[in-house]
Design brief:
mainly beta, 1 helix, about 10% helix, disordered N terminus
């Protein structure tokens, strides 16, 4: 009898505790970061097009050179028309951005690379709402253009 009473009391107290605890909903996963509609390649390879006057008995040995992304410019329309847009910037976070919309002509993104005067250009998809340039330092040492560098700066350019 005592055993039955103890079991009954445990059942009632367990049911009461379950009724008092709010039901927990499963946590929603964080929304995925928006997929970039366009992004500058982190590096490009350039084949030398130098016109070298080679002394008799010598020949030119062309080599590909890798150039790393250093930033970007955004233009409304053709860059030849010189309608370059100025980004908003936050120097503390090493971030620049352009909020897009309401433009008369398509936007053009020009990716800039170290050691090159020219860049590469692409049209920004009309669905893009913002283009962003972020830079960060890697905590490492390495070689760049034949010299040691500490913590090379890396740049990322995306339009979403």
């Amino acid at each position: 009898m005592r055993l039955a009473l103890a079991i009954a009391l445990l059942g009632v107290s367990a049911a009461g505790a379950a009724a008092q605890e709010p039901q927990r909903r499963p946590a929603r996963p964080a929304p995925p970061a928006a997929v970039p509609l366009i992004a500058c390649p982190p590096s490009i390879e350039v084949e030398s097009g130098d016109r070298i006057r080679v002394p008799m008995g010598w020949e030119v040995r062309p080599e590909r050179q890798r150039h790393w992304l250093r930033g970007a410019d955004l233009f409304e329309g053709d860059p030849a028309d010189r309608v370059q847009l100025r980004p908003d910037a936050d120097p503390r976070t090493r971030r620049e951005w352009w909020d897009l919309g309401g433009n008369q002509q398509p936007y053009r993104l020009v990716c800039r690379y170290e050691g090159l005067e020219s860049g590469i250009m692409a049209a920004v998809p009309p669905a893009a709402k913002q283009c962003e340039v972020t830079s960060f330092r890697e905590n490492s040492r390495g070689m760049r253009h034949g010299r040691f560098v500490s913590g090379p700066e890396q740049v990322r350019v995306v339009c979403r």
